[in-house]
## 1
Amino acid sequence: MRKEKNISPRTDLAIEAREIVQEQDEKESSLDGIEVTEDQGAEYKLTRVHITTKKGSHTMGKPVGTYVTIEAQKLKENDVECHERLIGVLAKELAELANLKRHDTVLVIGLGNWNITPDALGPKVVSKVLVTRHLQEALPDTIMETVRPVAAISPGVMGITGMETGEIVKGIVDRLRPKLLIAIDALAARKTSRINATIQLSDTGLAPGAGVGNQRKMLNKETLGIPVIAIGVPTVVDAATLVNDTMDCMLREMKVQAEKNSPFYEMLRAMEHEEKYGLITELLHPYMENMFVTPKEVDAVVDRLAGIIANAVNIAMHPGISMADINRYQS
Amino acid sequence: MRKEKNISPRTDLAIEAREIVQEQDEKESSLDGIEVTEDQGAEYKLTRVHITTKKGSHTMGKPVGTYVTIEAQKLKENDVECHERLIGVLAKELAELANLKRHDTVLVIGLGNWNITPDALGPKVVSKVLVTRHLQEALPDTIMETVRPVAAISPGVMGITGMETGEIVKGIVDRLRPKLLIAIDALAARKTSRINATIQLSDTGLAPGAGVGNQRKMLNKETLGIPVIAIGVPTVVDAATLVNDTMDCMLREMKVQAEKNSPFYEMLRAMEHEEKYGLITELLHPYMENMFVTPKEVDAVVDRLAGIIANAVNIAMHPGISMADINRYQS
Amino acid sequence: MRKEKNISPRTDLAIEAREIVQEQDEKESSLDGIEVTEDQGAEYKLTRVHITTKKGSHTMGKPVGTYVTIEAQKLKENDVECHERLIGVLAKELAELANLKRHDTVLVIGLGNWNITPDALGPKVVSKVLVTRHLQEALPDTIMETVRPVAAISPGVMGITGMETGEIVKGIVDRLRPKLLIAIDALAARKTSRINATIQLSDTGLAPGAGVGNQRKMLNKETLGIPVIAIGVPTVVDAATLVNDTMDCMLREMKVQAEKNSPFYEMLRAMEHEEKYGLITELLHPYMENMFVTPKEVDAVVDRLAGIIANAVNIAMHPGISMADINRYQS
Amino acid sequence: MRKEKNISPRTDLAIEAREIVQEQDEKESSLDGIEVTEDQGAEYKLTRVHITTKKGSHTMGKPVGTYVTIEAQKLKENDVECHERLIGVLAKELAELANLKRHDTVLVIGLGNWNITPDALGPKVVSKVLVTRHLQEALPDTIMETVRPVAAISPGVMGITGMETGEIVKGIVDRLRPKLLIAIDALAARKTSRINATIQLSDTGLAPGAGVGNQRKMLNKETLGIPVIAIGVPTVVDAATLVNDTMDCMLREMKVQAEKNSPFYEMLRAMEHEEKYGLITELLHPYMENMFVTPKEVDAVVDRLAGIIANAVNIAMHPGISMADINRYQS
């Protein structure tokens, strides 16, 4: 879970960044360098956002590359059969993005703090991934043909280790020399409704502080020398986002009822364009700075999400593991 | 954590119930049957609310009896020395309310769901209370003189057991026949600033659904046949309370800036008297119904609060345990 | 996990009690009142011991009734498919022993200490049992037709609660009035090879201290007024049993090599009949009194065993749950 | 917890290695290159073993260097006051071995598997160590003067990560460039009585497979380029060690009673010199290969040991932390 001091509602989701761009500027040219395709299924919506140019990257505040999002309210629920189908979708997208050769070694990194439930997604996935790299010499070739060499670690957060996470990962990557890094993390979103209902895959690495001057070491091809796929789920929103969302609803409601062109309507309209989110943040500060909003059953939901992602990673990585093996290789 | 479908911000705290009464009705007679004394220390504020008559009970929506509240922002922080002083204050208040004879047996009940961090306060306290009732025959008299017979259990919540908690407690009380029940629970508050910063003791039992027709079995002298002391801490607020608190701040801010007697000021004033909380709740429903607001470090804070309460219970109950033994009898 | 001060290796397993009887006395009449049928499958061995008379009960040191044992070394391993077949076998035996009417309420009790991994079997099963009793009024009849009213609780051990477990259970049973109690517990065995490889079902209740004067309250039809089915797995052996088992192996080895009728052979033979186990226990005392022997991966094994038993309970109890639903109703 | 396939009882403790040397060879010259000083206090025994030459290293099967052992049966018990005194002793020895300059950075590594209680000592210590390295820029100089830059991580075991632990540590050390590595690990001992009652400090690094051809990467000055202090506690013995210990007791007992010069006595004597341990291991194999012996309350004991070591590390490392701060900086 990466946080920043920023007065606009921060989002790690490319689909939300695009919504913000569209809200702020209705000209078509504003989306130059950004290609979007959507695929609305019965159970989920799959969106592919391709940022193709520097201009697009600047507009979106995100690096050039591909962002695939799976949205499904059922991700929050305990619907075993739907989750199995989503595992299949996710595994397919991941295998495509990864584009690995048969014997390439992969390192899976679980980011986040295992002591804080909504930030524990990454470490939980890592604990469920089938790790095989150390077995290469011990197992017979016929078995090893069915698995790819996979290593995995959850390095912890800086407050726990005293070290920048990027430094730890860089140190390990330099010794292990894998062909691909897969990093799993909880994300920030700006819509309460997306909590635990969205999975984003991207091939651009993790850019925790892009655009806001955060000094944290990025995990991407430039810094690590290997491709990085990030898999993330927004698991909380901060208190200000919740208030903001609610006030938006209220204003919409009031606008409907207020007469157009009345001074009150004007005020409300004006207010939307002012830094409403900034005002809220300021008011919530200081005593609510550390508050976050999360569903009551967050422990169970994060556990299930971790299972979905880990199953997808196992299927996408190991040639011998298929949909029939779901949950079989999880401890 | 007891919840209800109610459109006014629900509170388990007598001090908040009184604030609401005062806000709604400024006549002095409105507080008939309610006596309040306050004691403002450097580190904490101690408030005693005595509801002395049926009228007072009806006004407050709480049973006749005594409610002692300790408020201290430091309860949230990791301030070992301040917490030791608060343990002393709490132990003294508890011993007074309990008013036990030397060899009276006490049963401590930890209410709430141990799988949901902010609801796990009661079970955590129970795990730290020094349990001695089963040692009565094994230990020599000289040692037994230093301890009171104390039993303790966390029965779980109805969603876990399939049984009304009150039924389980009643069954155990009927067989064990203790002289006092001490019940520990997480509470609902209506001010975000009170989360994890307030401990309430009361001698009126627990009345989960008082006034809103909730059918849950009460734990009090009428239902159990023995006195019941409730110890509680508000550990979360619901999302609607957070939004409400924030909007109150915003309105206050805007009122300061708006010209008095302008139509806008009037609208804001009017809005305060409308069912703002109800409107918010309606808007948040359905997708935020299960959202709650909690501090990031809730696990650590609830652990520390459980330690404070358990130490106070141990000192108040056992003649041989004093302030010098803090943390010594916790596993 | 029930323990006793006893110099002969203590067993909760009827199949082991019978082995001891056979070892000590080779006359056929010694097994009067004890009927045994065995069913050796490819993956497991199913043994039914019926103690039919008082004489049989006295010989075996166990109450009159039925004891069904499933033995399978694969219970220790992570063999998902074999475990699914064993769930089916267990569910069938349990349904038969339970012999319930369609709407009878069942209470499931998880005995043992959740803080000690090998003693946590009962509480772990309870956390995975589908609890439905509290839904009777909330759910539509068509759904309720598919489930039986089931309640469940793990009362904890006396060292944690200060109360005799039997007292707590009696208190709850008296208020809830279920038609059947199912109690799950870790057992003591006298063969190291049976650890985590044996499940015993019995309809005789739990008789923790039968025959050794232990005063603990029994959980059976006499004390509770309802039938009691016990489900148990031996999860540890004490250190003395391990030493004893090993020395038996050594003696057998040495006997093979020693000439018959030599004084040495005689000594070894004699030694077997002496109180070897008692001697070992004495030697191990005091510094090894609290030592127990357990497999390295005990956490994972107990988790899987709990899953097997909980699935079997769910299938045996709820008409609408079948083998196709394995793991689906576990949190 | 490092294990090996070896038929002689394996020990990580220098004091046990010396006992073995003394048992096997009573000549004085056998201890050439090994200096031992002992300090018997009322509550604990402090032994310093210095291996000063290659010959001594070969005799002991351990690298040249210093091994400090604190033995105290009270380490197993819940004796807060004694533990505080032992923290003081341990902190003093650690500070001396570490011999750091004022601002040297230290990396603390918790070895072992957090999923297996007796192997979780290292990770538990790490979770209680005060980590400060990341605060160097954020905090004012006056506060930073009271703390040393300390980082800490628990990398997990190879079965979990797929990577050699030494590789991970090497990668991190190469990037972080600390001046000292402190590695905490559970150890193997060959006497059941030493379980959880002994803490060993050494400045020789960790040599998991010394002498038995184990290929695991060592953590020492040669491999990492910085000094390594290892802190360890034996938390389990394997089943064979338990049986061996018990049989030694039995033989001693029987020798006392047997007439000297009888053939039986001769046999017992002979047996001692045979590969008794090897025989036991063989007999226990295969079904007990993975069994280990541990005290019932192992969770609580390992927690307390971790607290003792973490407090000692905090006091030895940070100039501003003293005995008055025990437990204050642990989460």
Note: Chain D touches chain B at residues 80, 300, 327-328, 331 (CB under 8 Å).
## 2
Amino acid sequence: MIVILKENPEESQLNSLIAWLETQRIHVHPTVGANQTILGLVGDTSRVDMDMISSLDIVEAVKRVQEPFKNVNRKFHPDDTVIRIGDTEIGGKELTIIAGTGMLESREQLFAVAEAAKKSGVSFLRGSVFGPRSSPYSYQGMRVEGIRLLLEARETFGIPVISEIMDASQLPLFEDIDILQVGSRNMQNYSLLKALGKTDKTVLLKRNMSATYEDLLMSAEYLLAGGNRNVILCERGIRTFETHTRSTIDISAVPVLKQLSHLPVLVDPGDAVGRASLVPPIAQAAVAAGADGVVVQVHGDAGQAGSGSAQAVTPSTLTGLTEKLNKLKAVLA
Amino acid sequence: MIVILKENPEESQLNSLIAWLETQRIHVHPTVGANQTILGLVGDTSRVDMDMISSLDIVEAVKRVQEPFKNVNRKFHPDDTVIRIGDTEIGGKELTIIAGTGMLESREQLFAVAEAAKKSGVSFLRGSVFGPRSSPYSYQGMRVEGIRLLLEARETFGIPVISEIMDASQLPLFEDIDILQVGSRNMQNYSLLKALGKTDKTVLLKRNMSATYEDLLMSAEYLLAGGNRNVILCERGIRTFETHTRSTIDISAVPVLKQLSHLPVLVDPGDAVGRASLVPPIAQAAVAAGADGVVVQVHGDAGQAGSGSAQAVTPSTLTGLTEKLNKLKAVLA
Amino acid sequence: MIVILKENPEESQLNSLIAWLETQRIHVHPTVGANQTILGLVGDTSRVDMDMISSLDIVEAVKRVQEPFKNVNRKFHPDDTVIRIGDTEIGGKELTIIAGTGMLESREQLFAVAEAAKKSGVSFLRGSVFGPRSSPYSYQGMRVEGIRLLLEARETFGIPVISEIMDASQLPLFEDIDILQVGSRNMQNYSLLKALGKTDKTVLLKRNMSATYEDLLMSAEYLLAGGNRNVILCERGIRTFETHTRSTIDISAVPVLKQLSHLPVLVDPGDAVGRASLVPPIAQAAVAAGADGVVVQVHGDAGQAGSGSAQAVTPSTLTGLTEKLNKLKAVLA
Amino acid sequence: MIVILKENPEESQLNSLIAWLETQRIHVHPTVGANQTILGLVGDTSRVDMDMISSLDIVEAVKRVQEPFKNVNRKFHPDDTVIRIGDTEIGGKELTIIAGTGMLESREQLFAVAEAAKKSGVSFLRGSVFGPRSSPYSYQGMRVEGIRLLLEARETFGIPVISEIMDASQLPLFEDIDILQVGSRNMQNYSLLKALGKTDKTVLLKRNMSATYEDLLMSAEYLLAGGNRNVILCERGIRTFETHTRSTIDISAVPVLKQLSHLPVLVDPGDAVGRASLVPPIAQAAVAAGADGVVVQVHGDAGQAGSGSAQAVTPSTLTGLTEKLNKLKAVLA
């Protein structure tokens, strides 16, 4: 950590700062320039409160040199994390493809998607049963009945399942679900993160639309600090000024997160861009950038009014896309 | 709602869409142009799922004409909402000034801030006792002991208190707290919003850093739809590319939210910009733009290393600022 | 175009608006709802000033239905534009790879990059000779001498060349340059665009960091409206809150621009992200998303202090990357 | 400047870097930590190329400590710059109010605005005569005839005038214009900035929608480095995800720019938000935040279809607003 002092700092305040830092077991190396004095802080600065130091009268700015995350940091854990669920590995040599229904609405819809998923050889089946919906007047989900349907589909098709948890109090309901999704709006719901950190459930953590890479990694750090190492990161678009797409997929997130962390990284193109015609090119880009897999929404009942959402692809698009993604992965190997 | 069709839409699909809309009690008025056909949808479109319609093959785009929020909408409730707590009114003729400690750390700190607040005549005293902290390694708060201290300070100084709730399960702890803050990271924690909607506690709802005005109002709508009308909106900065300040205060939020909604609007300058020297000019701007009040963090123990955060002002700054804000309010009346 | 009227619009003003629109040869179709009246405008609305209409007392909002761009619009020109320069095609079946020096500094540097480019089989050689530099104290470029060196390199290596023009007055200097780049900071320098629109020079138009897709296409429209159809669009990153990378590459720009327009689309990964280690994954993502090619900066003298910029890759990285990009293109065909 | 080295940097490369820096008259102070070595660079680092250093193999990151701007920097020129034009001062004790027509369309329009300006006691009259227009099909301005009308209005009403210059080649036409506006799209048109830097014309430099404070100040630095000290900064909104307003006014720009620089700072609310009803509250906020003045568009012919733009206020609003702004300024003094 670097502390940049104002010109002519008052000496007693400077000494008090240095003394206080040393009680925190931080060693201070000053660099005195003509106009500016800089303090280099050496030691475990991850617990030093930058805001606190920058609030001092004598301090102009504080800059962090080391990342504040540890357990998720590739520097300290160079090997890729590979998560095993049944016969499947996430973060290993194979692509992970998750096919989902969006909001789960009926047995017919779920089973149609599951059948398409089975045919295309995808790894996981997703359905949302508790929302989240931005309007209180929208359909709020099948709830417990939806969880039951997911488990029935797993039984029938032999594909492990994933669903979004909204609140720590729902944990018992998700006991048999294979992967628990934490949605982008809950990425900094620390009560939920702390509760999940105490389990060993695999968690798919979606990036909030205004989260920096560091914010996302700090939320993952909450999970790992609690003892749960089964964490998957998921890029799903950030808020920018461009409104042609629902949000802007940040494809650089893939190689950057893989550099900074050892955790697997997936991409959800449909959530990011909100229209089916863009899902294949973005999914291809994600794999070409090094993603461990993608999430794709699939129509349960294509072509019917009221049967899906703007981002869902048809079963035949899913099949073609899955093939192409596997070929891309092979070329990159 | 406007539905823009693709060129030469297939007629059977078009008829099926129109029939389906009419079962939703929506009347459809088509406008046929040379290149483009547009459907005008008339009726209660707030429950129509835009995504669903825009996913149809024959649809190019869907645009909403009416706002999706109702209970918070000024069109349907033209009079300002005024919330009474003890002798104080929020959203009425007087400015509401909330003085806070940031993270509550000790009785000394809280009582020093409370004394400064009392002297300056501010309306509410705030202290955070459960976080939120972006790092799991940061101090996580005084918890129940903090709640107790807030109530003691209220007793001693006669100032009502506000604190941030993180989770629906904490509701019993906040029973005696006057205003419950929902932080920006929880603005779309729908489990929490639904639980608060069923109470009559006054809620200060902070805008998420990537929330549009509509997003914020839809979260407020969750509270009002549940039956709770005691809601205060709070602008606290949005995420932009400018990094000189922690986030960018969106001062237009004040007049826009006052136009769109009848709810009181406060501004938290310190949270937005993260440095004490900018708090007075931004607080002044907020009041000049029509805000019903501001939130200001105050040093409990100015000048000591480790005693505060970068955004906290001194007690004497608070006194001068409060005077100036009241003068500005008088000029604008 | 859709005009949404306020409740109970004054009738004389409404009639005056309709009459005025009809003098512009626009037909008006009203849809009268319970709370809201909507006017559907049919005809050539690309010349109607939205701002003007939305300023009227009786108007609540104006929404555009048709795109305001015509010559660049794929709807009116469904076939891809393919630009031929010597033996090379841009926008056709082969990838276009441009290898560049960044700021051109010396003959040695340029010739080292040109040699690497030749070996890797890239299509064009780029060097900047007039800046742009954000600081007046930075090196401002080799200017005319740089243009001369580029032409010498073309002669020696047989690779056509590209360089950035800053101002219409420089046009004579660029007479023999194969492609003229308009940098992102000049994307809305309309004096420059108008001057280039009157030539038949191939123009590489880079997206400004705050330009929407529509803004970029409207700037291209200036060129085509002037008569110049040899225009290449180039995505180079947009400004977002994420600061780990210099800007955020918007990979969706590739499929969206290809859908909206018939012009070729390139991507400049290095400019966007500002670090060499991210150039290969982003370039791969660009091609996988359907880009017609990429721009890559190459070190003239790797490993020497002062010899390059943070985003330049080594010659051997260029060779490996070019091979991989061609393989990806083949898989996608 | 701080250079953060990678772990275990190769010693010969490190020595070569230090030697090279010392030839640039930069002294290097290393701080050696357990995991990390940091170099503190002391001397005139404003000419050191950060990108060049960060491209080295042994370097992890480079952080600037000193601002790269000098002539515009308040640290080196603590006193406010006050610009005198006729009897008027910009940046002094009085507010500067500029009333404008937007796009100048006719003598009647200009003279109506000039009369309103005269009555309200505003300082300057603005009219745009060369665009800029984002569409090549929009009206491109009155050009030379517009310049002539502005000079006639100045003669008639005794109010100095301001207009937007698009290109260095237009300088002769602007010889008698009092203030030359550089629009936000040209903020980094360095050819134009260099040309204006060689004159002594007063320049109103508008912030680009994606420019950081530093970017804006570096563009101003181009003007001052050329010798022209008569520069006014103008905030006019940045691009964010919020689309309810045309752009987002960044009110913090006012106090931050006043802290960082000695130049006067104006705000253009209408350009930022694009709707007249928001102009008064934002203008009030600007003055309350410490702005030296505001720019306000005024209707030349209110209420007529085709007579103005969405952001123009009526003459009577201008009068009321001017009074209120002067009262606010008095309260703040």
Note: The CA atoms of residues 207 and 216 of chain D lie 6 Å apart.
## 3
Amino acid sequence: MDRIVKLPPRTVERLSKYRRLLYKYRDLDEAHIFSHRLANMLNLTPEQVRRDLMLIGLNGNHRKGYNIKALIELIGNTIEPKENHYIALVGIGNLGRAVLNFIRKAETRMNVVAAFDTDKNKVNTTIAGVRCFDTSEMENVIRERSIRIAILTVPPEAAADTTDLLIRSGIKGVLNFTSVSLDVPPDIYLKNYDIITSLEEIGFFI
Amino acid sequence: MDRIVKLPPRTVERLSKYRRLLYKYRDLDEAHIFSHRLANMLNLTPEQVRRDLMLIGLNGNHRKGYNIKALIELIGNTIEPKENHYIALVGIGNLGRAVLNFIRKAETRMNVVAAFDTDKNKVNTTIAGVRCFDTSEMENVIRERSIRIAILTVPPEAAADTTDLLIRSGIKGVLNFTSVSLDVPPDIYLKNYDIITSLEEIGFFI
């Protein structure tokens, strides 16, 4: 199946979530799942799930639901890059380490291949399997290793300058874990993760 | 204005994000912002922003956009609880510490009032301003302090059991930072944060 490029961001995000939820069932032969079960696990409506899956060309069986193996494979074909993605992690504090460990344990084509920090005690060490470079080497390392995505876990006061440097170095996507709202050019895909927003959403609905 | 309870989760999430972006402009008198500017900063369409704000009863001025102070106030009235929310953080590893520091610096009514861990070296200490209790005290502490939201930053193998214990203790909302997909009863509001999903979304769009 050809890669569908017109999917909206939210759909891609949900497809990725469906797949990760389904991974744990994939060794079951002929296992099926209903849209309402997937919907329940993710606070979505069954209609939303069915609409997303229809967008990638999949219809459920009314009696049995969706075939889990087929679902995992089709989502993979749709959203997964043909080759691996190379990622830089910028800022190795507590959050940076936690993120590195999280990614290392996950099954994904997302590979963190370099970390950056200004702390001389961290530079030239290996942290959670990843080499840490001095921030002054950023431009060279990012170009040499074809890194196109950066995870930003620096202190808030360093967020804006670091982002500018990343973009000058050729980064095309940023996952921002700082509390700072960043200005990026339109060709850069910025995704903010804001813990407070998630908590406020939970607070509203409980 | 009465609290609108029918807002969908995504709308609440976006309203929270609009407000947090706008905080930095609020000291400007009579400052306005256009929907397309807000949309740009969050990878949304201007139509989406206008629809969200119309839902809470706000129309922009065609020439000037939205009054920023009014916007912040109205979003606050809509999504903010009348009283503070009390939160427990469960699992004080690197991620737990990072989350605590993040929340402490933010302007929010979300208060982390207790942390839990099984590590005897952490129990009965204060970490990032929060008292750490032994996990065995969870049920008592949560009830005594009226805690209704938990942030889950435990290792994956502890995620399911810890969640069961939290729910038995009266927790109504969970922000899950583990990579484990949790089964919770329908009256519990579960929000998963999955770093891999965010990275896959970025990878798709760059």
Note: Chain B has a mean pLDDT of 87.
